[in-house]
Amino acid sequence: MISHGKNIKIFSGNSHPALAMQIASALGLPIGKAAISTFADGEISVSMSESVRGSDVFLVQSTCGPVNNNLMELLIMIDSCKRASAGRITAVIPYFGYARQDRKSKARDPISAKLVANLITAAGADRVLTMDLHAAQIQGFFDIPVDNMLGSSVLIPYIAGKFGVGTDDTVIVSPDLGSVTRARKFTQKLDMPLAIIDKRRPKANVSEVMNIIGNVEGKKCILVDDLIDTAGTLVHAADALVERGGATEVYACASHGVLSGPAIERIQNSPIKELTILDTIPLTNDKKLDKINVLPVAPVFTEAIARIYEETSVSTLFD
Question: Distance between CA atoms of 264 and 292, rounded to whole angstroms?
């Protein structure tokens, strides 16, 4: 697949080695050799076991839980490659942690997403490749190029294959007002009606459903979101669609399955028939359910990496 130019190397952190291996295999490359270990006091040590001088280096590392360990590991890997004279360093971050802290919601709040962007840039990254940032404006937090891949490029074809296109009995539902723009893109591609859950959130990780905007009675509903953390918003929305809206079936999809705390129990006991997520975050055995369907993102990142390396346009992947 790689036809010209300087050599390319793919390295993996500890957060998602399976995804890095899939990407490297699709590119016809081995995973770069690196020794990543932790000292007794928790300090992270990274040693690149092969030369990266002049190479186009791609470091695959989701900053999922444990978020701080994985983030620090990525920063040290970037610094290691920079000091080893890598030609260009691209941080491939399928799931970008801290993305939800993208603004000051009250006085004296930090903007942690900006801080993380500064850290990645200061460490020496030349480019960032990620997927479905919680807020698109986070791209502007970086002073280096950012390619934000869209999870909808994987989810929409799956939904189209399962439910068809232009069907009147299926409704795309935004679980809150913040996801309306994302849900509208699904409705445009799938030619389906849109409904919106209007909710009030009293405090963090607690949501209260208020109203359903749109007609879902007697219809199949597909909830669309960018990430699922404790699943409170998702499950409350699903309950409302069935109990208040009169929906016949509820499905859900999201790019990032954080699935922390009571998420698995909530999803298992909810009216959601199937939850489809992408493998930007590895799904551990304790989080696997028959209801949860996982789609691969390796093909999207493989194509993006190939285009970045060959200096061709990545923008067509956003369509």
Answer: 10
The answer to whether 316 is annotated as binding is no
pLDDT tens figures, 198-221: 876 566 666 565 689 999 999 999
Contacts of 220 (CB under 8 A, 6+ apart): 163, 169, 170, 171, 247, 248, 249, 250, 251
What distances in angstroms separate CA 133 from CA 51, 188, 199, 237, 255, one per listed residue?
A: 32, 21, 22, 22, 10
Catalytic residues, by residue number, are 199
Backbone angles phi, psi at 34, to 5 degrees: -150, 140
71-113 per-position pLDDT tens digit: 999 999 999 999 999 999 999 999 999 999 999 988 999 999 9
- C-beta separation of 45 from 78 below 8 A: no
22 is in an annotated binding site: no
201: annotated binding-site residue?
Answer: yes
Q: Does domain 152-295 have CATH number 3.30.56.10?
A: no
84 with 33: CB under 8 angstroms? no
Residue 217 is labelled as binding a ligand = no
What's the predicted TM-score (pTM) here? 0.92
CATH of 8-150+298-318, one of 3.90.550.10, 3.30.1960.10, 3.40.50.2020, 3.40.960.10: 3.40.50.2020
The DSSP letter of residue 289 is -
Vertex 98, ends 94 and 100: CA angle to 5°?
A: 100
The H or E element containing residue 197 is strand 194-203
DSSP for 215-247, please give it: --TTSEEEEEEEEESSSHHHHHHHHHHHHTT--
Residues of the chain with CATH 3.40.50.2020: 8-150+298-318, 152-295
